[in-house]
Design the sequence.
């Protein structure tokens, strides 16, 4: 049986919003919310927080230990190395990469991406829902085989390839079979709905969503958030000035040979 390890990379040293993963919403720190939602995916397997070996991230280790969450500590800037060594430690066959700045991620989206990968495991080396994106920004899921992760760990040399883990795959469709999962509604909200956590306004938005929904329904979904925003449109305007900002805009060439699959 294939062993799936889902890795949530987290650190306190964010340049734009330091300590953001430790901020509170609905009485709980965002990193704990994030782990809780990822564990609700039926395919996420073993969920591990991968943080840095920097002293400032001792607090993340302490948080994980207190809440019985698996963790690994590794390189502070070479995230590819941190992912690879986390996967090695936990003996992964399949590696799922989810960033900690997605505390509103919907477990059903995680299931769709991992499920599609597993259904087509002989066809793809890597599947994500990011190229092109269609879900609201902040539902990022990338899935790859351990062999793929090992290959890029050896071959990737550029700083941004090491810093962001998967750009080497995205930029080498001649080497990898790449799949993408689109939102099955046919909508593209990736540039109009921002649910990721990078700026103070993002935190305000995410905190208010949790305060509105979590206490009555901890399992609130993507569609519950959309319904809430429709009923209270001021929520959607809180971080509107940051929509459409993606870290990979200037660093990734969208692969022309990439296979676009599922939900189209």
Sequence:
């Amino acid at each position: 049986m294939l062993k799936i390890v889902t890795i949530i990379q987290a650190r306190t040293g964010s340049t734009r919003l330091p300590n953001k993963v430790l901020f509170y919403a609905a009485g709980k720190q965002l990193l704990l919310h994030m782990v809780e939602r990822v564990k609700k995916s039926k395919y996420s397997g073993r969920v591990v927080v991968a943080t840095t070996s920097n002293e400032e991230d001792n607090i993340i280790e302490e948080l994980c230990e207190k809440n019985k969450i698996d963790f690994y500590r590794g390189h502070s800037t070479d995230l590819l190395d941190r992912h690879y060594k986390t996967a090695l430690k936990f003996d992964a066959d399949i590696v799922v990469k989810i960033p900690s700045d997605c505390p509103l991620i919907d477990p059903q989206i995680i299931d769709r991406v991992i499920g599609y990968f597993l259904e087509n495991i002989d066809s793809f080396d890597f599947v994500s829902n990011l190229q092109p994106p269609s879900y609201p920004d902040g539902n990022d899921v990338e899935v790859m085989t351990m062999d793929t992760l090992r290959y890029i760990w050896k071959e990737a040399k550029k700083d941004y390839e090491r810093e962001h883990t998967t750009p080497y795959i995205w930029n080498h469709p001649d080497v990898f079979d790449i799949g993408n999962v689109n939102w099955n509604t046919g909508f593209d909200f990736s540039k109009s709905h921002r649910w990721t956590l990078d700026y103070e306004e993002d935190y305000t938005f995410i905190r208010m969503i949790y305060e509105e929904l979590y206490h009555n329904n901890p399992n609130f979904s993507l569609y519950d958030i959309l319904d809430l925003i429709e009923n209270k449109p001021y929520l959607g305007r809180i971080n509107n000035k940051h929509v459409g900002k993606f870290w990979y805009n200037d660093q990734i060439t969208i692969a022309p040979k990439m296979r676009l699959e599922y939900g189209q």
